[in-house]
Amino acid sequence: MRRFLVIAAKTTLALLSLTGIGLLATSAWLVWHYGYSFGLPTEAQLAAVSPTGPACRTDPGRATIPLVDMSPLLRNAVIAYEQPDFYEAWSLNPIVEIVLALGTGRSPKPAGITQSVARCLLLLSAENDRQVDPIASIYFMQRVTRSLSRDRILEIYLNESYLGRSAFGVAAGAEIYFGKALADLDIGEIAFLMTRARWPFRTRTFDTRARDYGIDRMQTAGLISDTQAAAAKNRPLLLREAPGAQTRPVNE
């Protein structure tokens, strides 16, 4: 019996050793594949991204609005809608978040801002004109969070997210949807724009509903009062039919 137990213990240790070696080999392959072979933009390419200008796209005539020149309400509303703990989380690394979620039995927290910016920055590599798999996306997101500050990530998101109607960024969205400068948007218009990055192709029937949901998120986050929220919902949502067209209420 004792001999059997010794053999069983040695066999178990051998299997555990082989499993550990297999995990190390798999980890090494994943690091090599996604870090060097897959064609993701490198940390050097991310470091070379302009600290103030366009990051992913350099179309002529596209304006970049510095983060400090955007209203605090707009910035905070987008954070409340897409990634509420964007500044509070001790790490934006998605791998850290997945490990914490698994360890505590909760779902991973939303990461809409960092996910969107990572997809945008994939354009830095000519090899990434195709869909990347989820593992590659997570690997690249951690590279982005290591290379760029949170302010810069948010600035890229606000300036380069696609909002529908060929509008990239909130300044272009303000002009195309409302015929206004970014600084002139009211609460309802901000709420509408902040939902467009997630749903740029949705149909017109959802516009007011999406705006009202955005207003609710702003209210829940304490960015606006109950009175402001009610007034914003009661105000007609005037959208331009197309660039250069007249505005009219969505519910007409």
TrEMBL record:
Keywords per UniProt: Transferase
Pfam families: Transgly
GO CC, any one term: outer membrane-bounded periplasmic space
MF GO annotations: peptidoglycan glycosyltransferase activity
SUPFAM superfamilies, sorted: Lysozyme-like
Pathway terms, separated by semicolons: Cell wall biogenesis; peptidoglycan biosynthesis
Stretches assigned to the Glycosyl transferase family domain: 61-206
GO BP, sorted A to Z: peptidoglycan biosynthetic process
Superkingdom, taxonomy of origin: Bacteria
Database matches in PANTHER family: BINDING PROTEIN TRANSPEPTIDASE, PUTATIVE-RELATED, PEPTIDOGLYCAN GLYCOSYLTRANSFERASE
Name of the protein: Penicillin-binding protein 1A
Organism from which the protein derives: Bradyrhizobium cosmicum
Organismal lineage: Bacteria, Pseudomonadati, Pseudomonadota, Alphaproteobacteria, Hyphomicrobiales
